[in-house]
Amino acid sequence: MKKTIALVCSTLLAAGAAQAQFSVGGSLGSSHYKGDNVGGLSTDRSDIGGKIYGGYRFNPYFGLEAGYANLGKFDSAIGNVEGDGAYVDAVGTWPLGNSLSLLGRVGAFNGKLDDSLLGSERATNVKYGAGLQYDLSQSTAVRGEWERYRFDAPGGSSANTDMYSIGVNFRF
Question: CA torsion 37→87→69→71, rounded to 10°?
Fold first, then answer.
């Protein structure tokens, strides 16, 4: 009986390990700031943002990704706001067929929002997003995603930045 249990457990572990994959990737896109105006003056609300990440996919449906996101610089006539930080996400993948998959993610974002007038604030907040992934091959995929990054802003307020990006994911 013990040998049978050991054989079943080792078979399940080997099957899981055969499907597990490491990945690296990056995305570039448009960031949209949703927070207070800098110095009370009209503030540019969009810039270019990007992220780099590494991940581990446990099976075709679930993985973890950790990375760094720079969400851009948003200017007003007397100052600016910049946001960036590190994150860890649980990523769910739902195959839709023909190499196309739906992505969903939720995680923690340790972000820093720098306001040129009020200073900076670093905090950990929830992060989430959704997107589509198209597998070009077993090792390369293209992603289109929307992600929301939440910041604690200097002065006690909060701000969100949405990033709409296109990127590439390499699995090995």
Answer: -10
